[in-house]
Amino acid sequence: MSLDGTHCHAGRMPSSSVRYGRCPLSNACYIVTTVTTHQFPLFHHHGNAQDVARWLRASDAERRTESFAWAIMPDRVHWLSLPMRAGLASGLHGYPFSWCRWPV
User: Fold this and answer.
1) Sequence-separated (6 or more) residues with CB below 8 Å from residue 69
2) Could you tell me the superkingdom of the organism this chain comes from (predicted)?
3) What local confidence, expressed as pLDDT, does residue 53 receive?
4) Can you tell me whether residue 72 is helix, strand or coil?
5) How confident is the model at residue 6 (pLDDT cuts 50, 70, 90)?
6) CA-to-CA dists, residue 63 to 40, 50, 60, 72, 82, angstroms
């Protein structure tokens, strides 16, 4: 449900328990955190982390997103972004694969 008590997606969501209360907003920033299966340290391997960093940069270069910050950790990725279609900054420099638009 939205803040005014109405359903934003009118029953179109496949998993209402996961997306309950979420409404997409134009020009809204999104923070995305994705975790590997069983928290396996997939991105500990620098090649894997570099692939993710390359994908994030390509998404911005292709104007699909506008990233504000991201951090690739051994078992997860945190990404703060503004889709161009349709406390993270603190400590970013402690990770070898991280980036932030603003000085930290």
Assistant:
1) 78, 79, 80, 88, 89, 92, 98, 99, 100, 101, 102
2) Bacteria
3) 96
4) strand
5) very low
6) 31, 20, 5, 21, 10
